[in-house]
Amino acid sequence: MTHTTPTQTVLVTGATGTVGRQVVAGLLARGAAVRALTRDAARADLPAGVEVVRGDLTDPASFAHALDGVTGLHLITFGGQDMAPLETGERIVRLAREAGVRRITVLHGGGRTPLQDAVQASGLDWTVVMPVEFMANALEWADAIRTEDTVREPFTDRLSAMVHEADIGAVAAAALTEEGHGGQSYVVTGPEVLTLQDKVDAIAAARGRAVALVELTPEEAVERWRAAGLPQDVIGFLTGVYGNTPPEGRTVAGTVEQVTGRPARTFAEWAAEHAAAFRP
């Protein structure tokens, strides 16, 4: 595989999201020129050197100009204020093809979507990036850990091969700037399978203070999620994936090392990077 040349320009959609920011960082590390698409350019807060352009994936005409000179395109599958599955995939693909885009990555959002289907039928070099649970999801515990030194979760025996968001970005950046990734669907995991207790212990070690793990019943968890305003379909998804995690979510894949040439980052590394978020 060959590395990027300075002539490559990549348009990143969802650039201000948890993964999108890491795709941007991965591309910059490879020397690519980065153009970032966002609905609110004034609040993008992206690194120096990134060209920020305004546009909305639900209205492809709004960002057609941003595809000029682009060699790679990173797509998310949801858009708009309600984050509904995008129905504009065929139009986006047509614009990309007309602009001369060579490679497209799609961040898999769980299940097939119209946009992913359109990309995979495009005839372009596409790569689907399929991450398991994000390590960044642990930030949901930050308030309770700071104030109560406690994590309360259901299904505490569940397993996860959770992945550092920077590794997701690195895999996408490689696929956008190198030959050899076209037609691939990459499951992206961390380097180890963790229990909830493993995660809690790693956060405790990173912040230098013990954290207790308290198990909720499924009914207590559902009540908490409802009180937090989560929709019923999200509650159903969480109950299913936590209560019966699919094999790909609890099995280590070697994708990060195979694609990037270096080992996947551990949760202990992630916890050390974010230790301040968990301290009182």
TrEMBL record:
Residues 7-104 form the NmrA-like domain. SUPFAM superfamilies: NAD(P)-binding Rossmann-fold domains (SSF51735). It comes from the Bacteria. This is NAD(P)H-binding protein.
